[in-house]
Amino acid sequence: ANAQQKMTPDQRVAARVQKMKDNLNLTPDQVGKITTIYSDAQQKMTALRNSGADPASTMQQRKEINKNAETQVSALLTPEQITKWKAMKEQMKSRRMQQGGAPGGGGQPEN
Fold first, then answer.
1. What angle is formed at CA 109 by the lines to CA 103 and CA 111, rounded to 5 degrees?
2. What is the rounded distance in angstroms from the CA atom of residue 33 to the CA atom of residue 108?
């Protein structure tokens, strides 16, 4: 988990897309579009974080940003890819739970 804090936002997006590419056999076209979606979401998250607003008050906005990105990404995937993606996200969620999760929810959800 510590390695992730050291990554720049762009590197986090690239790592996330690479993992999806490996697991879901994304096409180059999908990779490009998904990278754009996640980069855009990442920029919005960063802007929220830098706004100085209380994290609790921006939680709903962060959820919206994530939900919009997920919706856009799933629209690009085949039904088979969506099934694999959901399984992949469940795995990541249970791995986070095993690590004790992020106290206070101050971090950014990876799902």
1. 140
2. 21
Q: Which two tokens stand for residue 84?
A: 């694999």
Please check whether residue 105 is in contact with residue 59, taking contact to mean a CB–CB distance below 8 angstroms. Answer: yes
The Cβ of residue 38 has, within 10 Å, a number of other Cβ atoms equal to: 21
Give the rounded distance of the alpha carbon of 45 from its chain centre: 11
Distance (Å, rounded) from C-alpha 91 to C-alpha 39? 23
CB 74 within 8 A of CB 85: yes
pTM equals 0.78
The one-digit pLDDT tens for each residue of the chain (111 residues) are 445 467 888 899 999 999 999 999 999 999 999 999 999 999 999 999 898 888 888 999 999 999 999 999 999 999 999 999 999 989 888 888 888 755 544 444 444
Q: Which two tokens stand for residue 71?
A: 């919706």
